[in-house]
């Protein structure tokens, strides 16, 4: 499914709020019970479950949930350590609601800026209060993302370093840009190389906001170079670009919601 400028402009508009949730608990029965209780909240969508901290780390990075209900005590990597590891890796944090049978972990949970703390067995009243707190926090967090960044200067030319050469590329020829370990790579029609910008945000703020769409925390795409929308994992989507490699780029949970709402996918 090809997409044009008008289509993407509509995608970037706000859509109905759905909270993507991930459950992390090494006790399967506890995870299933919490999932059952969360069914009563119509705006909650459970997108994944994890049974240990290492699995949680990868899923949080890949799926970008809005909210994570996570057990504190788990073998190997406990809940507190998961949050610390995500911070060390520079991964944007979801909101966390920590859960355990022991209340002595509450102080540490709040020190790590957990949104809330639930004692097991989880009582309905306390769960309802945690979900309501999450709704408010997520709405406040996502509000700035609904507005396109104001460009300080819309550049039509970009410097790309490739094979020890400094090449000048037309912004319109850029297919997408991605960041990995603090290094931004720009892929254009005829060249691929590194950018002198430090962050995706900085690069985006210097480009036409009507043309370049931040579809994922690590990707900025030229909407005129999207070739196809591809159904992907857990009701999400990828964008196939029209570069030489036909690169497939993941769409984040926030942008997936807007894409689904617009195209009725």
Write the layout of secondary structure elements.
Elements: H1 5-11, E1 19-24, H2 28-38, E2 44-50, H3 53-63, E3 67-71, H4 79-88, E4 95-100, H5 106-111, E5 116-119, H6 124-142, E6 157-162, E7 165-170, E8 174-180, E9 183-188, E10 192-194, H7 200-205, E11 212-216, E12 219-222, E13 226-231, E14 237-241, E15 248-250, H8 253-263
Parallel strand pairs: 1-2, 1-3, 3-4, 4-5
Antiparallel strand pairs: 6-7, 8-9, 8-12, 9-10, 11-12, 13-14, 14-15
Helix pairs in contact: 1-8, 3-4
Could you give the distance between the termini?
Answer: 11 Å
- Beta-strand proportion: 25-35%
Q: Count the strands?
A: 15
How many discrete domains?
2
For the residues shown, what is the average pLDDT? 83
Q: Name the poorly predicted regions.
A: 12-16, 144-151
- Give the topology string: H per helix, E per strand: HEHEHEHEHEHEEEEEHEEEEEH
Rg, Cα atoms, Å: 20 Å
Q: How many strands, which pairing sense, and closed or not: the largest β-sheet?
A: 5 strands, parallel
General description of the model:
The chain has 265 residues and is of the alpha/beta class. The protein has 2 domains: 19-146, 3-Layer(aba) Sandwich (Rossmann fold); 148-263, LytTr DNA-binding domain (OB fold (Dihydrolipoamide Acetyltransferase, E2P), Beta Barrel). The protein has 8 helices and 15 strands. The chain has helices at 5-11, 28-38, 53-63, 79-88, 106-111, 124-142, 200-205, 253-263; strands at residues 19-24, 44-50, 67-71, 95-100, 116-119, 157-162, 165-170, 174-180, 183-188, 192-194, 212-216, 219-222, 226-231, 237-241, 248-250. The protein has a 5-stranded parallel sheet with strand order 2-1-3-4-5, sandwiched between helices. Strands 10-9-8-12-11 form a 5-stranded antiparallel sheet. Strand 11 (212-216) and strand 12 form a beta hairpin. The radius of gyration is 20 Å and the shape is elongated. The termini are close together. Mean pLDDT is 83; it is low at 12-16 and 144-151.
